[in-house]
Structures are given as C-alpha cells and as structure tokens.
Amino acid sequence: MSGSSRLVDAKGLNKGVAPEFMVSPEMLDHVSPSGDRGGMVLGQGMQAGEPLMVSALRPAPTRIVLVGGLYLALQTALRAMSVGAWVVIATGRPTKWQVLAKAAGTGPDGRPVPLVQIRRLSPVELPRPTEDSPLLVVHDGGPTPQELFPPRTPWQTTIYVLPYLHPQAGATANAADLVLMQRLPAGQAQLAQRIWRLPPPMVNQLTSLQDDQVVALGANLWRPLRLITTQREQQILGPIRRGD
C-alpha cells in the first residue's frame, strides 16, 4: 500500500491480501502485474487527491467483497474489462448488467463480443484464466451469497456484490482478500465492527461516507478513498452514486 495508507493493527484484520492490494501507481510495477494486467485505478486519496490503484487481477486466486450499491460493482467490472479481463456475471437481475455487454460491443458478425457473459445464479463452466486473459467472476446473488464460483486458480478473481451487510455474510466477508464498503447505516456499521473488530472511529467513518466515497479494508489496510469516473464511464454508467 502507499506510504500514506493508514495501517490497522486490529485483531481480525490479520489475514487476506498482501499490502500490494492498494498501492500508488509508481509502486505498481514493483509489487503487482503491469498496469495493463491487473492494476486498475480505483479512486483517489481523500486528502491529496493522488490516484490509487488496486491489484485486483493477480497470479493468485482472489476474493473481493463489495458492500454497497450496484454502481461500484459495475464500475469495477468495467475497469477489469478495460485491462483485458473476461467478465462472467452470475446474477438474479440480468437487465441491470446489460450495460456492460453493450459496452463490450459487437464483433464483425454483429454478435456481442464474448468478453462479458451474463449468467443465472447457477454453476457453469468458466473460461480458463491466464495472465493474458484474467477472469473476473461477479457473484451478484444478494446479501448471503452461496459459493458458486470460488476462485481456485491464478488470475481468477471472484467479486461478491452485497447490497447490504447481513449477519449471515460474515463468513464470506472474513474470507475476502479485499473488502470495499460504501456508506453503511448505523446498524450495519455495528455489524461491520463485530465482523472485523473495528475501533469506534472507523465505525463512525463508515456511517458518514459521502456517495462517492469508499473504504478499502484488508490485512493491515484501512484506506478511505474517493471514487473517480471518466467521461466515457459516465456515458455508460451514469453519475457516481451510492444506491442502484
């Protein structure tokens, strides 16, 4: 992580990602794949506005949990596509994800480019991920997801989209290598406190995040950041928002 990241030595945060999950662009080449393979700009620092990158597609099976609105999941998947990842989306609300299929475009035959596959919430055979073609699997199955596509191979990342933090999601949350949380109501923030044993100041911060703010949580990592969006992303996804 970048030198300005806030380190957390709270019990319960001692497993998961290595510190390279949140790094400055200058450090990316030293600790993770090159910028066009796995390194994605996630947002910017709250104080200095420096760009922050997340090593989301790695040569190791990876789990990421997103707690919040659908916009955050859509933007993360869109940026994975931009660095060459296959994206498989298992969801109970497929119409919400069609914007990604449209963004991928069509081939010479007029058919949708198979870079994005939107599936039902049931196990299917996945593409084989490689360094040149990493795989992002998005599990959009509600607040208590089942383990349909656990990451088992290098270059496979599974994202679990949780619309809110549920007591029965504790196992999924604890198994994550990285957690990205948007603003939480007081009751859910208290649940987050119990799951990760957060001190009161961090709990308070979770309840006061703005619509465009996210907390990145991992091993020795507590990093509030501000989401950024490009003009092209705004055309595809609309403005940054907390809800769906």
From TrEMBL:
It comes from the Bacteria. This is Uncharacterized protein.
